Amino acid sequence: GILSFRMRIVSAFLLVALATAAFADFYIHNPRGSNNRLDEQNRDRDNANRLFDSQNNDKGGYNQNDMVFYGGSELRIQWTAQHGCGDSNWNNCEIIFQYYCDGSTNGNTIRDGQTRTTIDTAKPNQPSRGRHEELSNYNDCKTRRRNFGLFIADQDLTNKNSADFTRQNNNGARYGFECPEERDYYPYWHPSPWRDVAILTSNTSMCAYYQAESENVVGRYLCVGQPTKNNRAACDAAAGTWTQQANHNLPPPECKASEYGRDNHLGNTFGGQTLSYNWTIPTGAAAGAGFKCVLRLRYNISTGDYDGWNTFSEMNGPKLSPIKNDPTYDLKTGLVATATSGIKLKLDINTDQFGRTFQDRTHTFIIRNPPVAGRIVNLNVQGQRGNIVENYPSVEYDFVPSRLTVTTSDYIHRQVTGSNTSPDGAGQGRASTDRHSFIELAGSDASRNYPEYLTNLTMIENSNSKDGYYTAKRMATLNQNDNELDDAAPYQDFGVMRYSSPRTINYMSARTNNFSNRSEKGTIIVQSPADKGKKGVPIAIIAGAAAGGVVVIAIVGVVVWAAMTGKFASAGASAPKGYA
Question: Angle CA(335)–CA(337)–CA(343) in degrees, nearest 5?
Fold first, then answer.
């Protein structure tokens, strides 16, 4: 039968800040998040509307770079959330991981672009302009009536009736071909191209709901023939056909408690470590060989000043809304102060940010079929040139993972990337360039800064052989004769390697390891399979890869969630309350 269900909005999940602006917000560091950057040599991005709405400050993000990942390999995603998560200072927070892939290789789908100008709706296939979603994603959104059952506090959306207007995007601004309503709410109630990977939440009691309602497993409805209608009753009345689209045919996303992240300190977790999640790169129909993809993370923080799951449009407007823009509070009565009464306290509150979604997305990358059978772990780098003051809220160089534990059965895929147009700052080599290498430290001692002799290498098996010599030379010098690797390409793929015996290897990147100024060192611990998990190797090179395609990853920061009492899968289910 027909289910009528009401939307419970997590649209006011977590308050990002009482102030109307914050210094730094939500950024992906590995793989590198763009924050809408392309190739700017200035610290601030040029165009915040280029591909997506990040809600971040202009300073932050990394320039375009190449990356290739093998399907089924493990990738360490690292990010910083300036306002924290899992901290008692905040009431609710969620981080949603999603990706979107396209098998086309003609440059007319997912692409980074070559210009910083926002893509034109009249020329969606113009290859010089970056694009993630299809044009139809934005056109459907702009045509469709927005959900009028949502709580929008005292924001005025009068005569702003389409889904490109939200409480957070109350001016209807366009960001690439993104749908603002879909961006701000999760799980969204109409079809979306984004595939769910994982949900990290401060409220794990919601995990069963998020997994059951993921579009991975439950298809969404739309009104065929009457695209302005957003619910079955309105669709039927207009002689449209309320039609369920296919789900993404993927497993439900992983859902678990978010790690603690300290607010106002780039969101680092215990021990000063960067927040992270290990993602298994998709394979098969989800992302076949040669697919271009984008990963996004959305970060939601919502205030506890009202019940976000049980506050609806009935509470909209300046008189009824439980939160108000810049109120003067009466400490004596607990109410909004009048002109003459009480002990007055002026609060700096912006209600379009009470419940706020931040986002970041990676640059494009490509997925390829693995060259070997077995576990493959990615070893990458993050950061860009410049000291921490110049870079903030981006970061300085580091290997990811900086401490990697594998077994003799596992393969390591080493690849590094960077840019020739990074904002210039402190560092070695040609201005605005990033370069990275792998050099074993003398005695494999992490406290040292000189390289190990070729004959004593443990990072390269048979280092005395001709093959071992050339492997060590390439990893150390990138096959360049200049002493700062300026003429090498920023992207380097060193192939897939496996160690044949247990060992511990400490290594550095020589150009970017400048003692007392900056450090780029890493550790590889190789165990026997029997010792896996305990605290505590010759290598064969299997394959190398060249960046011949593109995949994009996006992260969306603060998300305004929407929950529903019914199931999307229910036959003929109506849209949430207030769609008409």
Answer: 95
